[in-house]
């Protein structure tokens, strides 16, 4: 395809007023709406029953002891380690000790798992529904125009995507239709949302996707559905047991202090 | 325990402050990349020139960040020192930059 | 936000808006009067294809660059607070009262409290019987489910 070096197209400024600005404003407002809708739809995490809380907190206790072992003297650490390892291996903190060895419950039937699935579903819906609706809206109303010229060249592969609805074969790929402005808005509006809604907003899809990758991060559910707490306890006991290297932070503190004086 | 871990144990860091600082830096970078995009659009930069402009602008902003809020000592406020100030949230910054760049490139030129 | 940076931001935003407007007008002028003798495009290129960046007059270019630099300067220098990440300097600042942790109002809090503040004001007396009773009640209602 022979491309003219400086293809020039004279555009009506009305294209900007009636396509570019509406799309931008709709995208921003949708982001704001999605943010608040997500806030509204978030169900408060259900209070767990006390045995489940005990199970989680003791597991965390083990992890914390392991992580901060160097902050306490060796004797204190050994005492804690012995206690925790014995308790973990005996399964003292398990929610239902009888369930060891049984296959994990089906997450679809587990009510806690259901809750989590519902939350994920809601998050997904909040992402997908507006995206589909806006894309359909843009395709229905604004397809077939060239509205702007990208400031950077693209390969020819993008032509079918970015010039959809424009039946001109020889046009430079840099001239794009309204759909590509939609894509630019989709990816580039995050900084705008940061300043409208603050840092932890739910308006942006990329952030939402990251959060879905690790849903355990901010939920109460430490043990995800399908994980066997008994096995995790045993693994943690082994970790504690194996951790032989212990070096108290205050070892040699006198020399260090005197060195700074 | 290797030397790095030991150093971390002896001189602990405050994770909340690390997160807050990197958030502030990312905020500054995304705001400034939008502004740089406006400038690039007005100047009518194209392709490589535009990305080069972004690179220079980001370096300039990093220099300003190190000079003003940090007082010339990036190691006090960021784990990785200079590198983390310059490279904070590059992808998000480029996206915001391209958005405003395209917008003003189209708006200014009839 | 301090007054000088506020002024700087306002001024440079105006300057940037003006640069944008001028660039727009310039491109309008050069497309509606595409005479090769126009001062902005001295090159003898065919009319109508000269709206590239190089045709922008020098004063608009300079205005844009200067205004953006000033704007960035104003934004970055407008009181963004960073906290030191090493615990010992941060804790020292807390104890000296020159900085406060998040969610703590600097005016109502007593100065000079460190990170181990919680250890300092534990209550002297706990009615342990009452608490145990409450706990037993709670177990009765919430346990065995």
Automatic annotation (TrEMBL), chain A:
Cell location: Membrane
Q: What keyword terms does UniProt attach to this protein?
A: Membrane, Transmembrane, Transmembrane helix
Q: Mind telling me which SMART domains this protein's record contains?
A: DUF106
Chief location of this protein within or outside the cell: membrane
Keyword Electron transport present in the record's keywords: the answer is: no
CC terms in the record's Gene Ontology section: EMC complex
GO process annotations (BP): protein folding in endoplasmic reticulum
> Main role?
The EMC seems to be required for efficient folding of proteins in the endoplasmic reticulum (ER).
Q: What is this protein called?
A: ER membrane protein complex subunit 3
Organism this protein belongs to: Orbilia ellipsospora
Q: Which gene does this sequence derive from? A: EMC3
UniProtKB/TrEMBL annotation, chain B:
GO biological process entries: autophagosome assembly; protein folding in endoplasmic reticulum
- The lineage's top-level taxon is Eukaryota
> Subcellular localization, per the record?
Endoplasmic reticulum membrane
Report the transmembrane regions from the record: 52-70, 90-108
Membrane is among the record's keywords = yes
Instruction: Please state the protein's primary subcellular location.
Output: endoplasmic reticulum
Keyword annotations from UniProtKB, A to Z: Endoplasmic reticulum, Membrane, Transmembrane, Transmembrane helix
Q: Which InterPro entries match?
A: Emc6, EMC6-like
Q: How does it sit in the membrane?
A: Multi-pass membrane protein
Q: Name one GO cellular component term.
A: EMC complex
Q: According to its UniProt record, which protein family does this protein belong to?
A: Belongs to the EMC6 family.
Instruction: Report what the protein is called.
Output: ER membrane protein complex subunit 6
Automatic annotation (TrEMBL), chain C:
Location in or out of the cell = Endomembrane system
Keywords attached to this entry: Membrane, Signal, Transmembrane, Transmembrane helix
A Pfam cross-reference name? MMgT
Keyword check for Transferase:
no
Give the superkingdom in one word.
Answer: Eukaryota
Q: Where is this region: Disordered?
A: 28-54
Protein name (Swiss-Prot/TrEMBL):
Uncharacterized protein
Q: Which organism is it from?
A: Orbilia ellipsospora
Q: What is this organism's lineage? A: Eukaryota, Fungi, Dikarya, Ascomycota, Pezizomycotina
Hey, which family's this protein in? Belongs to the membrane magnesium transporter (TC 1.A.67) family.
The GO biological-process annotations, alphabetized, read as: protein folding in endoplasmic reticulum
A GO cellular component entry from the record? EMC complex
Its membrane topology is listed as: Multi-pass membrane protein
Q: Which InterPro entries match?
A: EMC_subunit, MMgT
- The region annotated as signal peptide is 1-19
């Amino acid at each position: 395809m022979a491309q003219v070096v400086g293809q020039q197209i004279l555009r009506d400024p009305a294209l900007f007023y009636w396509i570019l600005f509406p799309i931008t404003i709709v995208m921003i407002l949708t982001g704001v709406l999605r943010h608040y809708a997500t806030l509204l739809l978030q169900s408060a995490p259900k209070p767990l029953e006390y045995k489940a809380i005990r199970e989680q907190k003791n597991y965390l206790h083990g992890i914390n002891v392991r992580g901060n072992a160097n902050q306490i003297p060796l004797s204190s650490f050994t005492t804690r380690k012995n206690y925790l390892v014995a308790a973990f291996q005996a399964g003292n903190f398990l929610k239902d000790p009888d369930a060891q060895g049984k296959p994990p419950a089906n997450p679809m039937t587990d009510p806690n798992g259901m809750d989590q699935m519902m939350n994920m579903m809601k998050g997904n819906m909040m992402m997908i529904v507006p995206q589909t609706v806006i894309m359909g809206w843009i395709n229905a109303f604004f397809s077939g125009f060239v509205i702007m010229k990208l400031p950077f060249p693209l390969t020819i592969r993008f032509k079918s995507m970015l010039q959809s609805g424009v039946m001109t074969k020889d046009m430079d790929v840099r001239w794009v239709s309204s759909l590509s402005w939609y894509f630019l808005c989709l990816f580039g509006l995050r900084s705008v949302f940061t300043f409208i809604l603050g840092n932890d907003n739910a308006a942006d899809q990329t952030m939402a996707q990251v959060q879905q990758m690790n849903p355990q991060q901010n939920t109460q559910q430490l043990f995800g559905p399908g994980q066997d707490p008994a096995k995790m306890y045993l693994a943690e006991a082994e970790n504690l047991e194996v951790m032989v290297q212990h070096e108290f932070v205050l070892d040699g503190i006198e020399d260090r202090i005197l060195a700074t004086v | 325990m290797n030397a790095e871990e030991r150093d971390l144990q002896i001189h602990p860091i405050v994770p909340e402050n690390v997160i807050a600082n990197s958030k502030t830096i990312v905020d500054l970078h995304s705001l400034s990349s939008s502004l740089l995009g406006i400038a690039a659009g007005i100047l009518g930069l194209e392709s490589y020139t535009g990305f080069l402009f972004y690179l220079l602008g980001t370096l300039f902003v990093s220099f300003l960040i190190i000079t003003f809020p940090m007082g010339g000592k990036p190691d006090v406020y960021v784990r990785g020192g200079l590198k983390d100030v310059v490279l904070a949230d590059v992808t998000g910054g480029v996206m915001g930059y391209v958005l405003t760049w395209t917008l003003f490139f189209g708006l200014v030129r009839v | 936000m301090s007054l000088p940076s506020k002024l700087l931001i306002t001024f440079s935003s105006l300057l940037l808006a003006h640069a944008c407007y001028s660039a727009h007008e310039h491109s309008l002028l050069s497309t509606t009067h595409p005479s090769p003798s126009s001062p902005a495009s001295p090159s003898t290129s065919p009319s109508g294809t000269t709206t590239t960046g190089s045709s922008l007059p020098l004063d608009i270019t300079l205005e844009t660059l200067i205004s953006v630099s000033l704007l960035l300067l104003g934004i970055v220098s407008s009181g963004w607070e960073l906290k030191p990440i090493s615990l010992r300097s941060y804790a020292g600042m807390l104890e000296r009262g020159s900085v406060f942790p998040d969610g703590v109002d600097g005016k109502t809090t007593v100065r000079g409290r460190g990170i181990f503040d919680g250890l300092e004001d534990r209550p002297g007396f706990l009615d342990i019987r009452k608490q145990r009773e409450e706990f037993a009640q709670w177990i009765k209602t919430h346990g065995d489910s």
